[in-house]
Structure prediction request, 415 residues.
Amino acid sequence: MATRALLLPPLLLLLSVCAASAASSAGEGFPRDGRVIELDDSNFEAALSAIDHLFVDFYAPWCGHCKRLAPELDEAAPVLAGLSEPIIVAKVNADKYRKLGSKYGVDGFPTLMLFIHGVPIEYTGSRKADLLVRNLKKFVAPDVSVLESDSAIKSFVENAGTSFPMFIGFGVNESLIANYGGKYKKRAWFAVAKDFSEDTMVTYDFDKTPALVSVNPKYKEQSVFYGPFEGSFLEEFIRQSLLPLTVPINTDTLKMLDDDDRKVVLAILEDDSDENALQLVKVLRSAANANRDLVFGYVGAKQWDEFVETFDIAKSSQLPKLLVWDRNEEYEVVEGSERLEEGDQASQISQFLEGYRAGRTTKKKVSGPSFIGFLNSLVSMNSLYILIFVIALLVVTLYFAGQDDTPQVRRAHEE
Prediction:
């Protein structure tokens, strides 16, 4: 018995080593060279155990959207696999392996999920390859990166790219922004710099610490927050800096406004790409910097006439015009300052803001369903398509029913 007892620990050790070796072999069985791997109910759990970041496309072979998505995933997969935190792309035929799809709540195709250490997060962002890579990089990044040198700061900024704003705390305690790093992770990059040179201070235009620098590379904007870091001041600065000072209004930026409760000073232009418009946007940027409690946006009638028309703007309207929009169904015009004339537009914008704050406004309703109202409508686009399909099917059915009845009536009459 004693000899047998002495043999048990080595035996258990051998079994554990074999088990670990088997698990390792299973992990090594999944290619990590950028190919999209096919999974099923026999190897899905093993893939979750072996791969830290697994992006899964639950698809159906007959689904048109799935077929269009496939080449985008093929293009994105090698880029994602080459990241410093690799993401492996896989797909599961959830029409065939329904039990597996049901386990993760798949009720439509395609359903995309990112598994981070086995924990699923549904992905609802863009399915274009470049945007897919951009968005997934954010998912796997740490909430707050810790930077120990100038070179680390440079690498962080380069790797972050230009798609999202970034916040770098210089001499800021990591714990102060950790919560916001998690809360706004999908919308911005966060980091704290522990060690940096005076050259870096010059680059980011701050002269004392602690300082939180906001950089929006897409719009070439930068600002500094020196505090106070207590209460709501810090989060207010972060939320306001998520958007550029002047927001080009389009379908993407309107969605970004959903999380912002500020009203929008909206400049409606003839063409937001011409030289006069670009000059006006510069003036608006200065006004926005001094009025952070408002969002400043601009839109061209040429670029998005359907949206502009909801503010009673016709083709004969004299532009540019200014109004204050609540981001939903109401807007206000300032008496005597509706239209911007040629000349000193900075003074005209100042008069507009003064009139707005003094309450010299007229409230109006949008003349049609605004884009935000449309997004918030209970009837989704999918529901609309289904309704159209049902009506069309009913019409076709009635038509062929009529076709079937006609010959029968003729035959009866002939007999």
Summary: The first strand starts at residue 37 and ends at 39. The longest helix spans residues 381-414. The CA atoms of residues 59 and 110 lie 5 Å apart.
